[in-house]
């Protein structure tokens, strides 16, 4: 009967976790009177959730349950209100947001680039206290459900100092806030002696509350990812109070809600929430608090009081200056723009907020931050692209090969062949699922690069717009234009260096080589080929170093004398279109940029040579990084290099320089001489920095690869043909920081000179 159906439905709701399949987040851009129309939405559709409040002229982000999506869109369209879909499927965004983690974690294995449960965070706090003598744990108070609210105190020395409180996780669904606060503690704890971060703990005491609303935070993991409030039961139909509307500063005023089911419900009375009362008492008890910040998400704002009124504080000029300095510092890290200003003006009026109350306690430097992002992910800010090192055993290699079928967007940085580790670039939207796949198949893995974008941003340094040969910095990565200018400068400066046209690229760029020789007598020729795979930036950088060392070699040195005996040709950028694309669009691009009318562009120029073309180790799919192309020598860059080498007529040595893996290899049909030269090369490399390279035939050292440059050139009759994979062994992969250019280049040069 109907009564049974209703009871059954209520039981299901009470016991089940909330899911958001097909729910959407719409970004609405109201103008003028439309703002009032937007406010009517919640009256028609009480189940919608304003992620950003409809105040002022800023966009409004609205979480719309799937059963109302169509009706809400009709409502907006009829009222001529512009909107866009910011999150198409909220449940998918939530599932992509978090990664599996091992059940047992120590401080050494704690992953700061995933979101953590309350239990994991509490364990981390204990581990930090046990590890660092200048960190202690302080009890702030308890939650409605009896959970302890803890803070970490960081300071060096026992003298009385100004105090700074960092309050995180007051709104429980804003996971990036606690995650960022954990990172802040880590940065302070691990700061090297003498650094600004280290010295700051000599001057002030810092208190960090990672989870200010533990009941709500636990509930976001167990039941409802979008829960914002506390979990108190005030005898209403709906539970919880907004802990950032419950402070006794214009309590129950504008920007707070009397409806118990509202996410902005101000509660039955000011300080009704034990969590809020605990924090107030904690701050009051410290006695010397001079700075406070309440960390939230999202929208990228750095704000200061007041929130409850548009009137400015007596300290407005000071707060504005500090906020401006803060957003400038933020921009300098990753070029993320934050807006600074009073809370009521930057976002909306909000009565009963923590920042306003703490300011009125006498803490002049009181702030509220809204972290990333600006709405594309909202509260479900995903973790970042990662590079995972997988260690398959036996049949697991076949399982690893299945990954690409399930997740076509993943990118094998090292191929799954043999028993060697496999490095896989996993886009952020697949990180969680890939880790689950590996765990279920009992395949060991470790995170080699926690945040690929950060690694890319840390890889390169700013350089002056104008460079001469005298100011050219060999220890940073350079654009194609900068490299071409450098080549012109080398030719103009050194009489024994000339420039040779190798050919052109698909997009019409010239491929140049530098010819280095000291006189005009015919000599054996040695070709050094760099940058065939465009994302391997360390290869061109090392080859430029080699040219420099030869050019600047003092008379009588081994490097100087070698130019009396041979001609050396160095091609710094063999794949210019791909290289330019790694700077302008996609740092991980490997192939050429040719267009054959397929869905994906480009061909792997190291699978396009006519030596067992389209065989094992090459791929027929145009979207694969190992795509062999529509035919052998389909790529104009590959044809140009082949014809260039044939035209030289006396090539006796060739090396194709790549990264990464630290290998020095030779083709399939190797001779004893090839093996001896490779061994001597890796010994010379080891003598420079103690770096150990493996050596041997390409197919045995790394993998089988059909259509490769080295194999083809060996078959042309160039017996001393080699392929090198430079640093590193995977800690940075293709995004090797510039600090490693010099040591890598020095090693490489030593190996090249043996050949």
From TrEMBL:
Q: Where is the Peptidase M14 domain?
A: 114-404, 476-755
What GO biological process term is on the record, naming one?
proteolysis
Question: Which positions carry the signal peptide feature in this UniProt record?
Answer: 1-16
Q: Which cofactor does it need?
A: Zn(2+)
Q: Which domain of life is it from?
A: Eukaryota
Q: Where primarily located?
A: secreted
One GO MF term attached to the UniProt entry:
zinc ion binding
The protein's location, in the record's own words, is: Secreted
Q: Which PROSITE patterns match?
A: CARBOXYPEPT_ZN_1, PEPTIDASE_M14
Keyword annotations for this protein? Answer: Carboxypeptidase, Disulfide bond, Hydrolase, Metal-binding, Metalloprotease, Protease, Secreted, Signal, Zinc
Q: Which family does it belong to?
A: Belongs to the peptidase M14 family.
| Role | Involved in the digestion of the blood meal.
* Protein's UniProt name: Peptidase M14 domain-containing protein
Organism, scientific name: Ciona savignyi (Pacific transparent sea squirt)
